[in-house]
Each structure stands twice: as structure tokens, then as C-alpha cells.
Fold:
Amino acid sequence: MVDFKMTKDGLILYIRDYTDIYTVLQGIDEKVKSMRSFFAQGDKIMLLVEEHEKHISDIPKIVSRVQELGLTISHVLMGSEGEKDVIIRKKVDMVNQGDTRSGTKIVKKNLRSGQNIIHSGDVVLIGNLHAGAEIVAGGSVVVFGRCQGTVRAGVNEGRESIIAALSFEAPFAQISDLKATFSEKIAFPCVLYVKVGRIEIGDYNAKIGGIYIE
Structure:
């Protein structure tokens, strides 16, 4: 289920399709510890999880466990196992910066197409999230800039999580298990939240420091 594969692009932590995330996390522990003499603290590896979209809510847990074991995920890959090598369909850069003691990740940069942030807690991006970039967060996401890329919030903390941005132009967003598509661009501060089983968008109201939720 969990294996390391050496490729021309580097070392890949390869996780085959699974049904139980806790078995996967245990497998990562055992595999990394069995190769402890091979790794140095902070070594960079790539991550590929089969059926990536199906397991998207587990990716922050996997990345967090790898970091706890002293390794760094440099790229998240989408692909599958071939007869002789790993077939890579997409390669996404991981932005590794901004972890705080509170568990919130604060990233101070623009995220370009092909870059992503994956974190098990809340994420604050001070910059723009461009189209083709993605944030996957266990908790809430705040973008101090234009939100044009994909945001998936609440994969750990559920429907209480929110997405906030100074402007929202993304065609898709997800909070917990709920997904929504958007065609209109919102050029002012707003908050996406869950109400009665669907994702709503509320205008940020400076007077009350938040949004009106009936």
C-alpha cells in the first residue's frame, strides 16, 4: 500500500488506492522508520496518492505525518503505476513556509499556476491565489488578495470552516464535503460559508467585523 519509488525525477512516496487512512498513516510510519538510515532531517521527497481526487481530504493528514517524521514534500504528483515506472500526469509544487506554533500556516507570496498549499489546519495567504493554483486546508482559508484558484477548506474541521477573500473569482470551491461552482466574479471582500447544507457567499461587513448569517 505504501512504498518508495526511485524515478528519474527523484524519490516518490507512492500510496496505492486504499479504504482506511489510518492504515496508510501507520504504513508511512513503518516505511520511513525502516529507512531511517537512508534519510537526513529535512530531506525532500515527492508524494503520489492513487485516485488523488477521491482521497483529497486525506492529503493534509498524509503531508502532516510525513513532516512529523522529518521529511519535506516538495511536489504532489497525480498519476499511476506503470509496468516499469511511475506514470506522472501532473506535478504540483508544494509551498513549504509559514507554519506557526498555533498550527496556522501563513504564506506571504502570490501562488502561481501549478503551486499549492496543503495543510492540516487553517491557512492564511497574504497574496493572490492565481488560476491553476490550489489550497487544501483542514480548517478555514483566508486570502488577503484575489482568489482565482481552487480552495478546499474544512477537510478536517468540517462545515464550520469558512473561506474569506478580498475578491473572489474562482470557478470552484469546496468546504468539507460540499462543493460549489461559480460564474460571477465578486470584486469586494466576501466570505464563503455553509448554510442549510450548501455553500453561500456573504459580503464582508466592516461595521460588524464579519457577515450577516440569518
The two ends are 46 Å apart (CA to CA). The chain has two helices and 16 strands. Residues 58 and 170 are 23 Å apart (CA to CA).
